[in-house]
Amino acid sequence: MPRIAYVNGRYTAHADAAVHIEDRGYQFADGVYEVCEIARGYIVDSTRHLDRLDRSLRELKIASPMARQPLLTVMREVIRRNLVENGLVYLQVTRGVAPRDHAFPADTKPSLVITAKRIDPLGGIKRAESGIKVITVAENRWERVDIKSVGLLPNVLAKQQAKEAGAQEAWFVDPDGTVKEGASTNAWIITKDGVLVTRPADTGILRGVTRTTVLDIIKKHGLSIEERPFTVEEAYDAREAFITSATTLVTPVVTIDDRSIANGHPGSIASSLRQAFFDIAEKIKA
Ligand code: PLP
Asked: Do 153 and 260 belong together in one domain?
């Protein structure tokens, strides 16, 4: 069955879907994106994802391409046309097409692309059962990583470095030795005293939607949580470590820079947070 993409008002064959060469996303990475998980026929945490999309657009002064309800209708239609029960729906909004000039063009319509893809949930389950490897890399991104911008070159390079090192994620580390976040995930540890630790989302990281929903689970279960920066040394010494994102949910980390975390097996708290996630997260029928 051919995949279908939505591009600026049209449903087209994914293989032929294209944007103009002067789209500002292509020319300047002048755009933002969102990714929602689709699980068991539901779109997960759509309100938080679309709220963050609105925020990213506002921060960059890009007009909203569509109101929330029609946007959800298009998302559902793309999901339906691609027969996705489990997978991802991806939205990208750029400032639109205009003659190449750095400053904002006047009266340009934003571009909107929506795609959906099927993913076998077994892959994620297997990765969660074995745990993943992480490497640390020096932070080299701009300061506004709280905006979910399509300007992801440092993230791409970090992920490639991880892949070449036989790892699945790279954690950006500030000059003071504290961990920021992964190339496409948020970073967490659990200390020897059983305290969950993750960096505050006010500056320096993307406020992950999965992170926020995991915080809901932690509060509901009365677990100890500290939102503060943690160092790489603390992470090496942790009882557990894990990552969160819409694409990985909660996935345990068993190795950081080739050092085993605790006994080198996925931790029980990370595994139970993963189990609890679907029930607690917001779900709307796809
Ligand atoms: N941090 C970065 C840099 C990301 O790119 C992502 C997701 O793409 C996340 C964190 C996790 O965010 P979410 O849980 O909303 O998927």
From this structure: yes
